[in-house]
Amino acid sequence: MPAKSRAQQKAAGAALSAKRGETPKSELKGASKQMVESMSEKQLEEFASTKRKGKPQQVSK
Question: Which domain range does residue 24 map to?
Fold first, then answer.
């Protein structure tokens, strides 16, 4: 499942980095903090690898 916005893609990248141990989990904020706990590494890779071109900065509700 690809990310729907740039913000979601960036949060997934930060969560993936923490899941792999490259950055401390204590540095995470907001959505990335929730993502690292609730998503698998494979799911985070799919979100983080989404191309940004044509994506909105944020998705409105």
Answer: 6-48
Question: Cα–Cα distance between 26 and 49 in angstroms, integer?
Answer: 23
3-state secondary structure the chain: CCCCCHHHHHHHHHHHHHHCCCCCHHHCCHHHHHHHHHCCHHHHHHHHCCCCCCCCCCCCC
In a domain? residue 33: yes
Q: pLDDT in tens for each of the 61 residues of the chain?
A: 678 888 888 999 999 999 999 999 999 999 999 999 999 999 999 988 878 777 777 777 6
Total domains, the chain:
1
- Note the residue count of the chain: 61
Q: Which of 20, 51, 52, 57 has the alpha carbon at shortest distance from 36? A: 20
